[in-house]
Amino acid sequence: MEKEKKFYPDYLVEILLVVIAIAMATVTLAMAFPREMGRRISFSAAFRPRPEWFFLWFFEILKYFPGNFAVIGAVVLPVIFIVTLVMVPFIDTGQRSGRIRAAAAVGLIFFAFILFTALPALDY
Asked: Are the beta carbons of 56 and 117 closer than 8 angstroms?
C-alpha cells in the first residue's frame, strides 16, 4: 500500500518547485525580450500634467473653483456625490415617485461624471 502524501513536506516541496520554475522562466523571458515601458518623453515640449482618465472629472471640477473656492470643488461636491449615491436606497421607497427621484439622482451624477470626463478630453 502506498504511503499517504501530506501537505508538509510532500505537497509543499512540489508547490515550491513549480513556483520557482515559473519565476525563473518569467525572469528569463523578461531578460531575453525586454520591453520599453511608458511613454517617450520630449524634453523640448511644454509640460502639461494630466491625471488618469478616472480622475479627469475631478481635475475638471477643480478648474471651475479657483483660489479660496477650491474646497467646494475638492471636498464639498465629491462628498455630495457620494452621499447621494449612498442615500439612493433610502430615496427609492418602492413607489413610483421614489424610483423616479432615485433614478434622477443617479442619472444626474452619471451625467456630471460623463460631462466632466469628456470636457478635458476635448482639451488634448
From this structure: yes
